[in-house]
Amino acid sequence: MPTELVSAINWRSLTITLLLSKFYKMVLLNRVAKTLRLAVGVRKNMLHTSCRLNMPMVPIVIEQTGRGERAYDIYSRLLKERIICLMGSIDDDIASLVVAQLLFLQSESSKKPIHMYINSPGGSVTAGLGIYDTMQYVLPPIATWCVGQAASAASLLLAAGEPGMRHSLPNSRIMVHQPSGGVSGQATDIQIHAEEILYLKRTVNLLYAKHTNQALETIESAMERDRFMNPEQAKEFGLIDTVLEQPPLWSR
Prior knowledge:
By secondary structure, the protein is α/β, with parallel strands linked by helices.
């Protein structure tokens, strides 16, 4: 066989081999990409399902207006009626939401009262003080309502409502205690954090004394350990003004 013909056949075989190699590589890459897309899709579905399972269901309220139907989630509809729900542990995220709602309602009206319903075990002292300062800063009177429990920082927010407008439902529980925290590290750092906790303790005690009209020594004694109260005891202590089973006439 002539040498030129042999060379041509070899080049053609090599070209076919390279083309087949590229083809199989593309097929393999496509299969890998498809597998990855499926895996990502399954993972996304798992995440979405997990989020739905972990998040509480929020009811939707449908209103009939002159322009047709309008849907609100229940908390937005309550906000329209100047009602804020502080539910769950108090952290920076919850504080941001409550502060934003207070500022918004003040911009809507500086005279109409705001109603804050509290069911919280407490939480971050600084987040609670952020809500407290905003409650004192805004102009509208704020009525507070304990529903379930108001413990730790939440009890301070309950007491910080407008005098005469601090309420509790009959089976709620109110608890006060001193701030707590923990830190590890060098002795100097531990001392710094201990001084900060003592500063917060004194600050919180002064605020309770202000809103309950109790002597500072009485507050310090009561706050030394967890002190649980029923609504009648909380009223006697000065944290609330009224124990209610029905809304007062002025709020209807």
